[in-house]
Design goal:
The complex is a heterodimer. By secondary structure, chain A is mainly α. Chain A has 30 helices and 5 strands. In chain A, helix 10 packs antiparallel against helix 12 and helix 18 crosses helix 19. The longest helix of chain A has 30 residues. Chain B is of the alpha+beta class. The chains are: A mainly alpha, B alpha+beta. At the A-B interface, helix 1, helix 2, helix 4, helix 7 and helix 24 of A face helix 1, strand 1 and strand 7 of B.
């Protein structure tokens, strides 16, 4: 009991130390205590910036040839935080703290608003935690793959090499490896899920402050908490992705809004017509820093960000076409400033000379661009989108987009961001051929819920807001009619959003299959060596991807019989040995496969695959439990 | 309500929620090893899967503790047998001193109506 409590305290201490403190220190070094950033914003932004800072600290340790251990991480984070605090002291002792009085009111929530924020936060955390309580156990395939590399990093004290595979990206493992090293938490505990939950929650809060800054209406931001936090709290890409270990997407949905926040703040001066301030350059530098962090974390999100960015630029320049002669020089002065260029070139040096992501070396970029090569890549239908984003949310989101266009503030860079964010992901997921995108459409569609939630919040606010300004785009109506309409709309939204979450809850999870897989994996870890080759089945064994963490003999060890449909996929021919060796272990092809691969242990679910082994004299059954049989090939 | 105060309250409230939710998840994360959530199964395995030795292990995760085992020859004839008590969550190793010349030797373990088997095809 005491050990468990100590472990948890160490975990929380590691979270605060590794992620919040570097991010907070970085913001302090840049902005001091000035009012450019509110306390709540500093807290929310610190986490994402801390993750990226720790990424770069890990790259630096690796680049210097130093082992990545608890001590080296501890010292490097302490040095980074100390350096930031010294810079802050030097900079702001000279100039004194800045104060920007125009920011005072934006975060001044009333008692009712605070109560509503508390309620929405409570419901968000409660629904997600309730769902995760049935799914927190180490069973998800993707999480198992990620945790293998996390354990590899912890065991080997260096950044994962991925055996040359381009599908993994270093930024997906560093946060877990860092916490694993600092706290000693086991990858089989709840720590990976809890860390992803925190990333998910802070991603939602980042969207909250982004909406607050862009629309400058507290109620729009509060409604964002409703649409993104409470409603559809379980559906992809929310709690289901947390429990499923869809690490890249969860981190991407934190870092992309974070990048948008900084880009927006850097362009905020256009709204007032003033010249770019010192803070604008700092925000742009942070935006570029965050963008590099995203490129180190998830290639799909980074790829999507590039497309969105192209559309943001197009929307903003077209909207301000008549004023380009003023905007372009201002932008030029902003971009070609020492702070921005320094971060940009430092990022490039890291990216190409110190630690280059695997996907740049591999063919991931080439395979993402081109005509859609599979049925799953030709685009989502509206029905697909409705089930992916939620019926109520997509209806209000489309309405919100129209309202935003109708009341478009061309000088507000944030309006361009929100519109481009929603429209580009909509196009990428429904019409990929127009943009020459060859990626699974549903994976892109999962990103749509974030901008759609903002637009839904905006439309609900504009349609039913109590002040006349907020109804600028809507018809004049009486107060009663508005209230009645609001109640009808809110009921529709709540019923749809909450029922979506309710349907995702499972019956009580049967945990025996997990325990049986781990017991058999432990047996194999003890009874076999690197001279043996193990083949296991992915179709009928629960949590089989976690087996490799018991063995730690390479990412592709043990061999795995994958989903049957993959052997029939004509667009991606693959080896057939893993199929043959289990399905027909005595036929000529299988015998050749056994000789070629050296496979001598086979782990299957006896309900589906035991009969073919039982009749063969060259297979012993070495292990038996209700869900697992292990066979040993004895010649 | 002052701005700083209200914002700090949001931060503290969020942290309390996160700590409470995550502490609960940590508290249940090893439930798959808890007999209350993972009962009624046991595993039988050979101590040395690659040799001709027949020593075996029973690991008990079920609520029953009384196990019966049998060593069966190729013709299903019982060569030796015995009973053993194994508490829930424990495992016991059984040594089989017999040298069996049959080609296929099976270890059959049962508790209640549940029976499990492991076997070896002896080479010499």
């Amino acid at each position: 009991m005491l050990e468990a409590v100590t472990g948890q305290i160490l975990f929380y201490a590691a979270l605060a130390f590794a992620f919040f403190s570097p991010g907070y220190a970085l913001l302090s070094a840049i902005f001091g205590k000035n009012k450019t950033l509110n306390t709540l914003e500093r807290f929310i932004l610190s986490f994402g910036l801390g993750i990226i800072s720790v990424d770069f600290l890990n790259f630096s340790l690796a680049g210097l040839g130093l082992p990545i251990t608890r001590l080296s991480l501890f010292i490097s984070i302490i040095l980074f935080v100390s350096a930031c605090l010294i810079i802050r002291k030097i900079r702001f002792n000279k100039t004194g703290p800045e104060s920007d009085m125009t920011e005072e009111k934006l975060f001044d929530f009333s008692k009712h608003q605070i109560a509503l924020i508390f309620l929405l936060l409570f419901l968000t955390v409660f629904i997600k935690t309730a769902y995760l309580s049935d799914t927190v156990f180490p069973t998800a395939t993707d999480m198992g793959h990620h945790m293998y590399w996390t354990q590899w990093m912890v065991d080997n004290h260096q950044l994962p090499t991925y055996d040359g595979m381009p599908d993994f990206i270093i930024g997906e493992q560093i946060p877990f490896g860092t916490i694993g090293l600092l706290s000693g938490a086991s990858v089989f505990s709840a720590f990976p899920v809890v860390l992803l939950l925190l990333v998910n929650l802070l991603g939602i809060l980042t969207v909250f402050i982004l909406a607050l800054r862009i629309f400058k209406q507290k109620n729009v931001a509060i409604l964002v908490l409703l649409f993104l936090g409470v409603l559809y709290a379980v559906a992809s890409p929310q709690a289901k992705f947390v429990s499923g270990g869809v690490v890249g997407n969860i981190l991407g949905n934190l870092l992309m809004p974070l990048a948008f926040y900084f880009y927006y703040r850097s362009m905020e001066f256009f709204e007032t017509g003033s010249a770019a301030k010192e803070n604008s350059r700092a925000f742009l530098a942070l935006a570029i820093f965050t963008t590099f962090g995203l490129f180190y974390t998830h290639h799909l999100t980074a790829f999507i960000l590039l497309f969105i960015f192209a559309m943001i630029a197009a929307v903003f320049f077209i909207a301000n076409f008549k004023d380009l002669k003023n905007i372009l020089p201002a932008l030029s002065r902003l971009i070609f400033s020492p702070q921005v260029l320094a971060v940009f070139f430092a990022g490039l040096v890291f990216f190409f000379f110190i630690f280059t992501p695997n996907y740049i070396k591999g063919s991931a970029v080439n395979t993402a661009v081109g005509a859609p090569s599979k049925e799953t890549r030709v685009g989502l239908t509206m029905d697909n989108l409705r089930s992916s984003v939620g019926e109520a949310r997509i209806a209000l989101g489309f309405l919100g987009a129209m309202i935003l266009v109708a009341g478009f503030k061309k000088r507000n860079f944030g309006h361009s961001v929100i519109l481009a964010w929603a429209v580009m992901i909509f196009l990428m997921s429904t019409q990929p051929h127009l943009l020459f995108i060859n990626l699974p459409s549903n994976r892109i569609g999962n990103y749509l819920s974030y901008p759609i939630a903002i637009l839904s919040a905006y439309s609900l606010y504009v349609l039913f807001g109590t002040d006349k300004k907020s109804r600028a785009g809507g018809p004049a109506s009486s107060g009663k009619l508005i209230r009645a309409g609001f109640i009808v709309a809110l009921t529709f939204v709540l019923v749809d959003g909450i029922s979506d979450s309710a349907s995702a809850f499972k019956d009580k999870t049967d945990l025996a299959p997990v325990a049986q897989t781990f017991n058999a994996s432990d047996y194999l870890a003890q009874k076999t060596s690197l001279d043996d080759m193990i083949l296991k089945d992915h179709n009928y064994i629960t949590a089989d991807s976690w087996m490799k963490i018991f063995l730690m003999r390479g990412y592709k060890y043990p061999l795995s019989r994958g989903y049957f449909k993959r052997y029939e996929d004509e667009t991606k021919p693959r080896e057939m040995c893993t199929l043959q060796m289990i399905a027909s272990p005595d036929n000529a092809e299988a015998r050749a496969c056994f000789a070629e691969t050296g496979t001598d242990f086979i782990m299957i679910n006896p309900r589906y695959d035991s009969a073919q082994f039982r009749k063969l004299k060259n297979f012993d059954q070495a292990y038996s439990s209700p869900g697992i049989n292990i066979y040993y090939r004895n010649n | 309500m002052s701005k700083t105060n209200s914002n700090n309250r949001i931060i503290y409230f969020f942290l309390v929620l996160f700590l409470a939710g995550s502490a609960y998840l940590f508290a249940i994360d090893s439930r798959y090893n808890d007999p209350a959530y993972n009962s009624d199964w046991y595993a039988v395995s050979f101590v040395e899967p690659k040799s001709d030795r027949l020593d075996f292990v029973i690991e008990n995760f079920s609520s029953r503790t009384d196990f019966h085992w049998e060593l069966l020859a190729d013709n299903a004839e019982s060569v030796s047998q015995g009973d053993i008590e194994i508490n829930t969550g424990e495992k016991k190793e059984l040594r089989i001193p017999e040298t069996v010349s049959d080609k296929k030797v099976t270890i059959r373990v049962s508790t209640g109506d549940d029976t499990r088997e492991i076997y070896k095809n002896i080479k010499n």
